[in-house]
Amino acid sequence: MKLLDLVIWHKWLGAIATIFIIILSITGVLLIHTLDLNLHEKFVDSDWLLSWYDISPKNPPRSYAIDDHIFTQIDEQLYIDNLELPTSDEVLRGVIQVDNEFVIAFDNSLFLLTAEGELIERLSSLQGLPQGLLSIGLNSDDRIIIKTSQDLYVLDLDLIEWRATEEDNISWSASTDLPEELQTELLGKYRGNGLPVERVIVDMHSGRFLGKYGIWIMDLAVIIFLALSISGWWVWFKRRALQKEIDADE
């Protein structure tokens, strides 16, 4: 290969390598300072990036309206109106209000919340709660009733235990349609908390940002770096040898 051809190839490799060097340098510096910049606690709010990562709920929202409030579950995230509540990997089964407190029913647990949405207590089988809840409601005496696949149970406030019942005058918590405006807002919140900035930077640094072929592209970049280094040395030796020949002729 002639020296001129080698120089041209070296320039092209250098131009291509510059793109990767800039990406790797910037993302590398950011990753070094990820804790200082709190990148693991910051989330992406760009629609196209969220769509690129396919950040969207796996299941449709479940909502229950009570006392001018709407309780909504989007996958594991729970909301009262547009306020985030403690998460749960169980399915939301209903919400009732007792005095000034809310009782949120899941498959195998109950959350007791204040009127402001603060968690007071979580009840589960450890506190004698029957498992496999299907619904929750109130009887005519405003006592809590839960329905399971096996039976109906009423909370005995005197003994603080659940006992089977055959009551039929029960006001059950019923699901409701989520208003479109609130649904749009909650889906925005959900998506916005699903993609940390740190993950995007890591994926850009490793090439995974471009999908399954991104890693191969970064492997190609490494090969280009090696070729650039070798061709650079080769050009230097060629020019040095050529200069020696010119000096010898003189």
Question: What would you say this structure looks like, in words?
Answer:
This protein is of the alpha+beta class and 250 residues long. It has five helices and 13 strands. The strands form three sheets. The chain has a five-stranded antiparallel β-sheet with strand order 12-11-10-9-13, with no helix packed on it. A four-stranded antiparallel β-sheet has the order 1-2-3-4, covered by helices on one side. A hairpin with a 5-residue loop joins strand 7 and strand 8 (119-123). It is rod-shaped and about 100 Å long. The model has no long low-confidence stretch (mean pLDDT 80).
Q: How do the helices and strands line up, and which of them pair or pack?
A:
Elements: H1 3-32, H2 47-52, E1 62-66, E2 69-74, E3 77-80, E4 83-85, E5 92-98, E6 101-106, E7 110-113, E8 119-123, E9 133-139, E10 144-148, E11 152-156, E12 161-165, E13 170-172, H3 180-192, H4 197-206, H5 214-249
Antiparallel strand pairs: 1-2, 2-3, 3-4, 5-6, 6-7, 7-8, 9-10, 9-13, 10-11, 11-12
